[in-house]
Fold these 2 entries.
Entry 1:
Amino acid sequence: MWLKPEEVLLKNALKLWLMERSNDYFVLQRRRGYEEEGGGGLTGLLVGTLDSVLDSTAKVAPFRILHQTPDSQVYLSIACGANREEITKHWDWLEQNIMKTLSVFDSNEDITNFVQGKIRGLIAEEGKHSFAKEDDPEKFREALLKFEKCFGLPEQEKLVTYYSCSYWKGRVPCQGWLYLSTNFLSFYSFLLGSEIKLIISWDEVSKLEKTSNVILTESIHVCSQGENHYFSMFLHINKTYLLMEQLANYAIRRLFDKETFDNDPVLYNPLQITKRGLESRAHSEQFNAFFRLPKGESLKEVHECFLWVPFSHFNTHGKMCISENYICFASQDGNHCSVIIPLREVLAIDKTNDSSKSVIISIKGKTAFRFHEVKDFEQLVAKLRLRCGAASTQYHDISPELKEKMKEQSWKILFAECGRGVSMFRTKKTRDLVVRGIPETLRGELWMLFSGAVNDMATNPGYYAEVVEQSLGTSNLATEEIERDLRRSLPEHPAFQSDTGISALRRVLTAYAYRNPKIGYCQAMNILTSVLLLYAKEEEAFWLLVAVCERMLPDYFNRRIIGALVDQAVFEELIRDHLPQLTEHMTDMTFFSSVSLSWFLTLFISVLPIESAVNVVDCFFYDGIKSILQLGLAILDYNLDKLLTCKDDAEAVTALNRFFDNVTNKDSPLPSNVQQGSNMSDEKTSLTRVDITDLIRESNEKYGNIRYEDIHSMRYRNRLYVIQTLEETTKQNVLRVVSQDVNLSLRELDELYVIFKKELFLSCYWCLGCPVLKHHDPSLPYLEQYQIDCQQFRALYHLLSPWAHSANRDSLALWTFRLLDENSDCLINFKEFSSAIDIMYNGSFTEKIKLLFKMHIPPAYTEVKSKDASKGDELSKEELLYFSQLHVSKPANEKEAESAKHSLEKGKGKIDIQAYLSQWQDELFKKEENIKDLPRMNQSQFIQFSKTLYNLFHEDPEEESLYQAIAVVTSLLLRMEEVGRKLHSPTSSAKGFSDTVCASGRSSEEKTGSHLEKDPSSLREEPQWSFAFEQILASLLNEPALVRFFEKPIDVKATLENAKTSQLRSRTKMQIP
């Protein structure tokens, strides 16, 4: 067994230990007398006796290993072993894993530190699989080893504690060690060669008592199966006896009171039985018995103090004992005075500001108890206030109506002192009154004041009426969602059980959706607005909603709820700072995010009863998000013990939901049929109640030191992380969808997406008010969030396309863009972009030719001519955008399909769900495009197609053979067309062009181009001719040089890397608009 390194002096140790092995850094020793004939003689007997009496580890582990440093008399014990095999295993491990490393250290101190660190690491690793928990003291760990070695009990037997004592064998005391475990009482002693080993099962004990006589002043008598055993010389005999009594009782209950035993979680699981737990249990049982309290009560705290006894006119010294539901006091002698105070009877708990450290508890019947000299009395008052608020019932001497009038009077006094309205002084007293809850009659006015909505309404007179009139009768996605949620907004409240309340809610929500279409309407807005309408006029509720959505909770109410996610991250950070034990217990911090989302979005309205939730809203309008964060921390802190015992997230959520169900507002003047907290079942009302005022006050006292500046800083810091996480999620979803349709690998797609997105953002870097920004809409589906226009596509085409070296590359980029832009909105998404790039990189010969073919026929193809002849085929930005928007007529069936797509445009008119389903079904069953379905290419398009091929072949190593091949293909196609026409007409229509192409095959590219440009003018008088895709493909396949050119492999990785490094540099060469 590896041991915690401890210092030993080798000089004295040599008398008791013999050297077995040694090297420069370690020594292996054997205990004198072990494995020696005759037990080592008298020396061996003395050593064995000494080990037993002093509880030396050497008794059960006669081998040990010491760590030594050169020129030092101080050694460190690092391992021990019960036999030679065990210790040899440790020695071999040290030689194989440690010795080679030690030679690299420069100083002895570094060597020792390294060895100690390694040994501690090994001990920690062993502890994971041992019943000796990591928090057990080192001595207990050694005692557990001796317990296991001496008695050979199963590993599952849990050692509770151990004591040094004497066992009386006749009239001779034998000094040894008593071990108390869950099922056995065990004793071991070794004196002068005489070994005593005693194991008594607790369920065999028939008598257990404390005795005393002439010889034994105090001893514990154990009778088992008719045999009497006496143990004495205990340091704390009363504690030892109490523990033995509990363990024996535990065994008896397990055998003879099975039903009670099974219902007791502590007894049911032996691994949960600890010395501390048994002692705490004993104290609770004594506490319950003395004060005759219900069986389930457990003693939580004990405070020494003085209680003022009014009828005797003096203070009596005693102990204040606190359980879950009672505060009890017993005087020192136990008979002079005792008091039982049920928390359900408590009305108020106060503390004095003098040095007496007094706690005053007021109960029903106008009785008060005054406790003096209470240690940590301020913390105690805070705890008791929280507990008493929870345990009190809804009936008080002071009615809620009277309390409401008292609150109103307090605010009137404040208004007289500090002023009323926008310019009033806001002091600590103001916050204290807000924490207590704003009176019903003042709530709307003060919400408007504290939120700043009063200023918005004052500076925009008549605005709400105008917006309501303009939004009246509109029909869109937002209004449909509003109509769906109207009846779900506080349906139990009478105000929203009639058309009057529903109509007001509809007008406010619709008006805001019209005012701010970017947000429109989001779920949770209906719940918040319902509460606002309960206490404010309709127009005031509208401006309060504006203040919440646009100032106080920015970016909360949109599709990505970035603001809420940011504040959740801030909340997690605060949990790590203020509740570290909860952070250590919860392995996954996302639990807090999932639980707290509704807290932030609805300001706790969705989880708390309405009468309690409005108090939270009071604090929110005064302190902003700070109050919500503080309350969240206070709730977790209040439920800390329950959360630490939860085994999974579901159990933790259940615990929090039960807590919220039992939050009440004892001061609420709302009628009982409206209060949600008063309508709970009898089963729930038996649980502990918590008053919202006490909870809010607790949150301010504990976490009021959180500063606005810190929250602001944390918001900024976490906003970056949240947005980047959302962007990464968007990217992963896009790649997952796109990867199913392309041959690019995920890594290549990832790099391509980065380049695509970077180009979009580069367009915004140096351009104020750039229109590109409007192309990013986070509310759209993942694929549609980022879209590029023709100008950005041209830049990417130049960087990525293997055909970008062509002289007419701008025209190719334009035609490719028009081909991909199927819905004619002059924008393409990443899926469309990657499909074209994938064909260029990984497409077959047929796919590449088909792509080029489609680029030269409508709707992609349009005649392109630059206004500036000196620039050749290069197009300016304005020309590019003009040609990309140019409308090209399409076949009737394509027009119908396009009109169906346009009918699905978001946010305009009512959505045609059937059209959406039809489009989705068409996409699901979309088959690969049949080449026979492609339209024929006319003569002007074919001429441009041929010119494009010539441009692609420029500067290729096989340039001449490629020119010759394309001339042969062109000549062949024209002759085929001529033969076809002769069958229908005796007049030859393509002879001149055929001769021209034959000649162009033997000339340079420039000559070929000139011939191709001249011929169409001469052929326009002739009847038009055209080619099908199958004809062009078959002709091209006959030329090996052409096939080799288009099937030439492309180094995609190198192309993407080069594009990434060149992307920014290429922008500097462009003229910034």
Note: The CA atoms of residues 438 and 446 lie 8 Å apart.
Entry 2:
Amino acid sequence: MLPEPASPATPTGLDLWGQQRATPHQGWQGPAAGPKGQLTHTERKWLGGCVQEVKAMPLGVSHGIAGTLLGEMALCAKKRPPEEERRARANDREYNEKFQYASNCIKTSKYNILTFLPVNLFEQFQEVANTYFLFLLILQLIPQVSSLSWFTTIVPLVLVLAITAVKDATDDYFRHKSDNQVNNRQSQVLIDGSLQQEQWMNVRVGDIIKLENNQFVAADLLLLSSSEPHGLCYIETAELDGETNMKVRQAIPVTSELGDISRLAKFDGEVVCEPPNNKLDKFSGALYWKESKFPLSNQNMLLRGCVLRNTEWCFGLVVFAGPDTKLMQNSGRTKFKRTSIDRLMNTLVLWIFGFLVCMGVILAIGNAIWEHEVGTRFQVYLPWDEAVDSAFFSGFLSFWSYIIILNTVVPISLYVSVEVIRLGHSYFINWDRKMFCMKKQTPAEARTTTLNEELGQVEYVFSDKTGTLTQNVMVFHKCSVRGRSYGDVFDVLGHKAELGERPQPVDFSFNPLADKKFLFWDPTLLEAVKMGDPHTHEFFRLLSLCHTVMSEEKNEGELYYKAQSPDEGALVTAARNFGFVFRSRTPKTITVHEMGTAVTYQLLAILDFNNIRKRMSVIVRNPEGRIRLYCKGADTILLDRLHPSTQELLNTTTDHLNDLDEEYYEEWAQRRLQASLAQDSREDRLASVYEEVESDMMGPLWDLQLLGATAIEDRLQQGVPETIALLTLANIKIWVLTGDKQETAVNIGYSCKMLTDDVTEVFVVTGHTVLEVREELRKAREKMMDSPHTVGNGFTCQEKRPSSKLTSVLEAVAGEYALVINGHSLAHALEADMELEFLETACACKAVICCRVTPLQKAQVVELVKKHKKAVTLAIGDGANDVSMIKTAHIGVGISGQEGIQAVLASDYSFSQFKFLQRLLLVHGRWSYLRMCKFLCYFFYKNFAFTMVHFWFGFFCGFSAQTVYDQYFITLYNIVYTSLPVLAMGVFDQDVPEQRSMEYPKLYEPGQLNLLFNKREFFICIAQGIYASVLVFFLPYGVFAEAARDDGAQLADYQSFAVTVATSLVIVVSVQIGLDTGYWTAINHFFIWGSLAVYFAILFAMHSDGLFRMFPNQFRFVGNAQSSLAQPTVWLTIALTTVVCILPVVAFRFLKLSLKPDLSDTVRYSQLVRKKRAQHRCTRRPGRTSSRRSGYAFAHQEGFGELIMSGKNMRLSSLGLAGFATRSGSGWIESLRRKRSDSPGSPPDKPLKG
């Protein structure tokens, strides 16, 4: 038998506190049920939206338990077999130690002093590039193979490994520091009948801990008792889930009286519960004590990471410690995202490696032939090594020698340089003051450094509505009570008054407890309340009782409400101002001041809200002894449960009341108690019991009254319409995925300019069956295919298009239609046999709005577009229900709004307002993509120009694997002479200023089409590099064959030739990067010309007398550089080589600018013209007559007349957006887009023709 406090007549407060919006799931199956069961469909939906994986953030650790969120979790205890259940007995360490539970020590660091070097090197050599260069280093140690010194490979390799190791060591240092800070905190532990100070790391499962106000919770505790009545305590979970409002936890009644040390020391209860898991809102277990069993839920638990607030003290029993706590279970790594450039770069590196092998094979074959035909005749002068016995074996060794020499075509510094550039781009985002929110003091934050360039390639944006497009600051706007609507104000003629024409707001001065910030404009509602209208009173009574709001009264009459959601707070505040003031609550009562009179209701049960039920109910007993059920929730849910005759109000929230029969309630309470005691699927059973009592509302057991409905207004954020319009002009399609009803979502669509009067038709899909949804989608496609379209000069024609070209046709008509689909219809549309039909229809529309969708459906829609469109997707949201969508998209953006920071923790980028998205994409994203593409093109160019010289030289040295350059030049070329200029370009370069990037959104399209770096551009860069290598080698070779010094001696010697070729190469690549740089800064100048100066300084130093005297075997060519560079012939050769290498590039770019300019070229030219005109106006003499010679024929272009008549180049009045010239630059982009839409299966980086 259960003790008296848990009887049905006196229900406990175990599940009367609905602070966590839990979803029923199939969780722990009890002590005898074996391992935890599989996730149900319901649980997967919840986990997709609400369980975040906290990212490793070693820097900027906040105070408190946030230090435990760093890095990859490592256990202090030994690896244990997976638990099937957790058993913890109070005050019995000997019993608990049998299970080998983890201690409370947490370790997020990966290394220590002894393991750092071997472990870090092991991790780094898991990278293919590092392993490859280690293999080359080993080859270089073989004398018969290598013609280069070992340091030519080991210096770049060690530099790369050292940079990465320093970064890893720095990160791990902060992890160690955080771990020590957390593990050494002090806690009061009950040991041997007295409280003793213990470090957190020494706390064990089964210990009883005392917490005091404002202290962090040391481990996952079962709340036993507290200083507050009924075993209540208040906690803040900001460090856990980001929510700053206080939550309530309650001890079970049987332990709530254990407030003194002596009684707690004798407590020997045993907790049997689920094994450690990462579900923050779920806990299933039971307490066995005094031969009785008491159910435990999440409302009885204090999780590590919480802070005790407004509670003097409390005691708790440690259930999970250290790495087993839910906080640490959630601190795993998120899924690693790679950009399309990363994937392409890996493919290209494999191709380059294949090209390297081919060159090695060609040169090895040449060596074998040369040795067989020529080398065998000169054995006296050029003897083979002892190990070489044939020309074939000589060719085999030559192959490996050339693999070493030509290895620089596979650049070891490429990946490190890419990471440095991405880090710089991330800092630019973090430092952008124009993305800083002054109101919230919140900067933009790049939480990852791997996705910056993909911000410049986004084609689809998936956005939440509430809190993302809107402010999530709810305002009680209207209501309907018994069929009468309140909220609108009418003038004397009966016309509805607009906001600016309204009189003063309603005066609530009669109510001393009213919220002065609350505004309402319709005085008739207050008059109805004052006149004692029973329906209106019952309506506001429901709003004041049916909620989970916590009330705090700091001063007399100053009430502060802590609500789980803004809409719930708005409803309770409205009831407060109209005279029904929620004043306080206990686990068993709710006190409301009704028109100045305090009324206390006995709280019998709370049937809490969750994302599946979409409603909540309370069962209370009023002072007259009548039992009533009050319920509020989404209209689509409640109206299905009401009697058909009552379904008259179709607004946002529907409310009603019922009187329950005492006998029925007693039976139902008994079933509820049994469900709460169940060890198997407790949440599912409770949900079934809740459904039973709420569904019986439409039965004949009692009279039903539909009270009314409420309309809560959530205003748009500032700048949302402008942002959406700007992104649409950039050819970014925006889909809104929201849980709101259809009417609300459509209204928001019009407010934020997603839906406009230019939209030909809005297709609404509301089918409840597969056949209905398929038919509605088919009709929508037919209307789009059969619609008249413009053929020119304003004429239209009607054309029936063949179904075989459906996709391309639908893409062609995109921009004239919109699609709105409900959640139940979307469930059918996402089925395997219909998803392509839905995708084709949706992608052809200008705007798509999905209503009443679950978190799982949001992720499914994003995954559908990712899978079939091969386009870069971005998801943006602010709440826990957006986490699954954010993680599924290529790029996730979290908004730090009113719903905590769950979305921010799961995101790749975060800021505080939706309007910052335009700057993130159109400025930072476009620049990052441009910079990365230019960096890669130049990087491959300079490396091929450098390496291919060895290939050409092989044909003139008997394929002997002799190098052209000095070995020190080979070592320093990539890490000193050419590294900093390309890094400066990759970090700082711009094609147009940020203002022009926002003014001309069409500049964003090359990134979407992947035009700036693809396989075609790669081959162009390689061809340019090979061309440069041919000239850099053969021009000096041809000159030196006939040239002589000033004194008549022969100029041609090996070292002079090497100095000339190396100098020509460095100057050529330096001039080339000067041509590639579009935005010059002092840093660019310093790095480019400074690198040239460093080259000459090192060159003269290596040929100096001083180094020769110190290292005569290493620096044998004394004075060669000074002697060679003193010859005019050498400088003429260098100049000729530079001109011949650069001149074709300059000529090609000049012709391209003149004949086929890009839009960015046009924008730069127009900016230059405006600047010159401004200077001319400033310097023009007064009274001077201007020349009548016209530049019209040169400046004017065909097509502007038609463009102006079409209106496409007009500025948006509220946006200040300038149209762009439809020159050939934009024309070929549109042509390319049509080509890609005609062949949707083709990869985006396929070489393009025309």
Note: The mean pLDDT is 79.
